[in-house]
Amino acid sequence: MAVLNRVEPPSTSGPWRAADPDDTGYRRLFEPELVGTTVLLASLWVVVNLAFYGIFTWLPDTVANAGYADDLYRFLFVVTVFQLTGQLSAAYLIEVLGRKWTLGGFTILGGAGTLLFAAAIPGAGIDLGAARTEAFLFGLFVMGFAVLGAWAVLYAYTSEVFPTEVRSTGLGVTGSIGKVAAAAGPVFFGTLAQFGYLVALAPVAVSLFVAGVALLVWGVETKGRTLL
User: Fold this and answer.
1) 123 Ramachandran zone, left/alpha/beta (phi>0; psi -120 to 50)
2) Domain of 78, in residue numbers
3) At 198, which CATH number?
4) 23 falls within a domain
5) What is the pLDDT of residues 127-137, one digit of tens each?
């Protein structure tokens, strides 16, 4: 006991301190200095999950009904290659262009690819003539490339943009909101597709575009920044 009694308690005057429970809870994410970041990141998680699970769950059906049933597996294989390429490209570009610009650019590109893909599906009411097949494939591959690229960056960006004391909470909350969209995506797309593929795809395309622009306007760049 004599030895134990001579041990000095840890100093509380240094730079480290225990986090205040009020600084690490969910409420902190919705305080004025973080609520904008929380809403922006949750929106990005929603649109990316909605695009991926909504569109790609139904992709075999969409491709077949567009008149390419005989080429279905070949198209699915190629779009999978483009998805992988998108992720690898995004991993490279975040260190060149930065997180915000890479994520915003991929999200906007995903919206453009989705809209072109939708416009090239028969029944959309848009006459592309002999270029319809080329537009369909180009839109499909750009959509796969960009949506999966955006998803890859989103994990890194979310983990860097929140302060340390709420980093895991911020990633968990915004990612979980995205998973709600992931669950709803196939139902959302399948329901709207009854009224036409353009009706189902256009809202997703617009959402991707708007979310990407919002990030470029209001988001912060975390490349090279000391974590808060």
Assistant:
1) left
2) 32-218
3) 1.20.1250.20
4) no
5) 777 888 899 99
- Supply the pTM of this predicted model: 0.84
Tell me the per-residue pLDDT of 22-81, one tens digit each, with 9 for 90 and over. Answer: 555 788 888 888 899 999 999 999 999 999 999 999 999 988 888 888 888 999 999 999
- Compute the distance between CA of residue 169 and CA of residue 182 in angstroms, rounded to an integer: 19
1 within domain boundaries: no
Measured distance CA(94)–CA(105) in Å, rounded:
11
What total of structural domains would you count in the chain? 1
The single residue listed with the structure tokens 């915004």 is 174
